[in-house]
Design brief:
Chain lengths: 142, 116
């Protein structure tokens, strides 16, 4: 059975926290263990931070949307903003020696580290990130 | 839950005992302000006790790096004490574990500062 829910939220840190809580609930309902729950929750939080901070730049006129889906075999989370659009090819490698001591630029890297699939889609305006975590046979639809 | 910071001095080293979350917004800003204040007062040897930090995001990781470089740029040292497994793993993934001087024992950490 497919379960799905979504939110449209202001570009604020409160929204980031709400999206993070929703991700944690989805992970727990879907049978992810503690480490997997931490990883999924963190990846979703980073995506929400990206949408609020880098995408919409806290603009009160712009919204973020977050949708959460368990289709029985995967958890699919989509986070979108209404910003200028993010080209992942332009992101510097945070593991490169010249970037190691940078004070920022690790969010997308962590998302990719913790999810099975990450997809970027330009929305004109904005960016949609799709984060996918495959479920194993011990995990289930929510 | 936001982050709490308490400060103590041990043998010339300033120890910041942090607890809670270091994330975008309050936790990161609190840490930045605390380190800036110490460096401004000339306290350049800083030990961040992360034993009670249960969560850190990319912004918090960036803040640790910025604090590390700020201390070093002023001729001081900033070291990390007692990482939780989650913070340890994040520093490993981001290749920062070898950048920071990470200690498990407070007395040994204090003794390792070269300026004291």
């Amino acid at each position: 059975m497919v379960s799905r829910f979504s939110y449209t939220l202001d570009s604020s840190l409160d929204s980031v926290n709400k999206v993070e809580e929703a991700a944690e609930q989805l992970a727990q309902k879907s049978g992810l263990d503690e480490d997997q729950t931490f990883q999924l929750t963190m990846a979703v939080r980073e995506a929400a931070v990206n949408a609020v901070l880098h995408g919409n730049a806290y603009d009160p006129e712009k919204k973020i949307t977050a949708s959460f889906e368990n289709n029985g075999s995967s958890l699919i989370i989509r986070i979108s903003d209404q910003g200028h659009g993010l080209d992942p090819a332009t992101l510097p490698d945070p593991l490169a020696p010249e970037n190691l001591l940078s004070g920022s630029g690790r969010g997308i890297f962590l998302i990719r580290s913790f999810m099975d699939e990450v997809h970027f889609k330009l929305l004109h305006p904005g960016t949609e990130l799709t984060l996918i975590k495959h479920l194993d046979s011990t995990q289930k639809s929510a | 839950m936001s982050m709490k910071i308490s400060t103590r001095q041990v043998d010339g080293v300033t120890i910041l005992d942090l607890s809670g979350r270091i994330t975008l917004g309050e936790g990161s800003v609190q840490l930045r302000n605390a380190v800036r204040e110490l460096l401004g007062k000339g306290s350049k040897d800083i030990l961040l006790n992360l034993a009670d930090v249960n969560y850190i995001d990319s912004s918090g990781i960036g803040e640790l790096v910025s604090a590390f470089t700020a201390a070093r740029n002023q001729g001081g040292e900033l070291k990390l004490l007692k990482l939780t497994k989650k913070v340890h793993d994040l520093l490993q993934i981001t290749k920062l574990y070898t950048v920071f001087d990470v200690k498990d024992d407070e007395a040994q950490a204090i003794a390792s500062f070269s300026h004291k």
